[in-house]
Amino acid sequence: xxxxxxxxxxxxxxxxxxxxxxxxxxxxxxxxxxxxxxxxxxxxxxxxxxxxxxxxxxxxxxxxxxxxxxxxxxxxxxxxxxxxxxxxxxxxxxxxxxxxxxxxxxxxxxxxxxxxxxxxxxxxxxxxxxxxxxxxxxxxxxxxxxxxxxxxxxxxxxxxxxxxxxxxxxxxxxxxxxxxxxxxxxxxxxxxxxxxxxxxxxxxxxxxxxxxxxxxxxxxxxxxxxxxxxxxxxxxxxxxxxxxxxxxxxxx
Length: 252
Ligand SMILES: Nc1ncnc2c1ncn2[C@@H]1O[C@H](COP(=O)(O)OP(=O)(O)O)[C@@H](O)[C@H]1O
Ligand SMILES: [Mg+2]
Known about the structure:
This protein is 38% helix and 18% strand. With 252 residues, the protein is of the alpha/beta class. It has two domains: 2-157, Rossmann fold, CATH 3.40.50.300; 168-248, Orthogonal Bundle (Arc Repressor Mutant, subunit A).
């Protein structure tokens, strides 16, 4: 059920009306592989998806939630530093529970998640302590982290995607052929940047364009899942995507 709150213009989905800022984003359009991992992820329980930055943790979790979980889902990005009681306060308000005193928020959140059978995705956890306040007594929770946190549940350690099936290049081509020429050029050129990530001024220098134009084009490439945002100000390629971009090599 999708609708619009006449008063606030906030988008709601699901019968319990979780506000849009806490809904999981869409999984990558051209998701490939990870069949074993998608099987390993199980409902009912806590699963940690671990692995280095850019390996595909969030993509896997989003794909699984999208395909295999029914009911309400809630997405929390723990990279954003925020005291836990403030975060819980915002969450509870998003769940239409206003004015819960700070000391009762953990219990209130856990019980509402349990009662409404809400599936949780806690993205980018850096410690177990950061996760604990959000864990209901039972239910489905997926946590992603660069570290192998001990959360008392299952762990799926992700290795980089290999292109064994050769299935990624044709999918990337689908996105690539739809790119306006300026974006396609930027995609090809930035793939030759020697580091793991680059920022707007660097991309502008590589392309010989203004930072302003380049920033818009980089954002479009992120939206099309050809580039990844690294922190607040930088961009990077997934290894296989970089290889694809380099293979296009019509430099100019
Ligand atoms: N299985 C996959 N198929 C297609 N693209 C993927 C896949 N896994 C990751 N990606 C892409 O690779 C990039 C990095 O993945 P992401 O899930 O954000 O990594 P992490 O969360 O581990 O830092 C994103 O652009 C994402 O869309
Ligand atoms: Mg991630």
